[in-house]
Amino acid sequence: MKLALWLALVAVAAAAFPRGAAAQNFTLPSLPYETDAFEPSIDNMTMTFHWTRHTNAFITNLNGQVLTKCPDLNGKSVLELVLAVGAKCSWNERRGWSARNSDCFTIPTECETLVRNNAGGLWNHGLFFLHNLAPAGSQKYADDASEELQTAIWEAFGDYDGLKANFSAAAAGVFGSGWAWVVVNDDGKLAIVTTPNQDNPLFANAPVKGLPILGIDVWEHAYYLKYYNVRASYISAFFDVINWKGVSDLYALAKEGAGSYATADVLKPAANWED
Ligand code: MN3
């Protein structure tokens, strides 16, 4: 190749990736399971479209609109973006998100809604698909939830049935589109919260904050192909495909505090997928 062409390519690359701003283009992770492994609880087509179309749209928007309008957000992880929604600069430090105090930042006004919807959406779906779901019949609460998690559920909800009843009622009660969550709250206890749209209990401006360990997507795209308008049937079926090992790992990290919890990467499959 001619020297002039090389120099031109180097110049183009330097302009695309300015010094100090690592290119942070999000990519859709590979799922660690077959999408038909959730039948009959969640149908193959829903699993496929929900991941490759709906989840991928958040990535397209983050890589495109967000980084175009707000290039200073280049290099931020999805967790950093989520934590920054509604945040004053000091918020992460106050909550004990120790690793990133020096990087504390606020989202530019022109990107607030885009980050709220798309970073929230990507984080939520990463948790759901890669840490909260396991193929039908592959795990049982009694065998696969840790003793510590089972004890916490017993303390908060009485027993597994109490958890299921409370969580299901919350998920059924979300008006329109949103999520229901089991979180570890500031007192270290389990609680159930709901959020609208793609909001998240980690947002600095969340009305009820907590560290999510289990979430259910109750947008219609998550269930309509199989369950039509009967959200309650989908919620019930969700309990047959929960990755209790993944949820237990998140619980252990959340109990250690926000700094430990921050080491969990929702865009990488939960540790039990390496077994
Ligand atoms: Mn969804």
Question: What can you see in these coordinates?
Answer:
A 3-stranded antiparallel beta sheet has the order 2-1-3. 47% of the residues lie in helices and 8% in strands. The longest helix is centred in the first third of the chain and has 26 residues, at 44-69. By secondary structure, it is mostly helical. It has helices spanning 3-16, 44-69, 78-84, 91-94, 112-132, 141-144, 147-157, 160-172, 224-227, 231-238, 244-256, 258-261; strands at 178-184, 190-196, 211-217. The radius of gyration is 20 Å and the shape is globular. The protein has 12 helices and 3 strands; from the N terminus they run ααααααααβββαααα. Strand 1 (178-184) and strand 2 form a beta hairpin. The chain starts with a helix and ends in a 14-residue tail after the last helix. Helix 3 (78-84) packs across helix 5 (112-132) and helix 8 (160-172) packs antiparallel against helix 10 (231-238). Bound molecules: manganese (III) ion. Manganese (III) ion binds next to helix 2.
